Amino acid sequence: MSKTIKTIIVDDEQGCIDTLQLALKKYCPWIEVVAATNKAEEAIKLVHELKPQLLFIDIIMPYLNGFEVLDSITHKNVYVIFTTAHDKYAVKAFKANAIDYLLKPIMTEDVVRSAKKALSQINTEEMVTNNFTAFLSVFKTQNLYINKIALPDNDGLILVNFEDIIYLEADSNYTHVFIKDGKKITVSKSLKEFELQLGQPIFLRIHKAFIANLNHAVKYHKGAGGYLIMSNGKTIDVSRNKRQELLNLLKPVN
Question: What is the pTM of this model?
Answer without folding.
Answer: 0.53
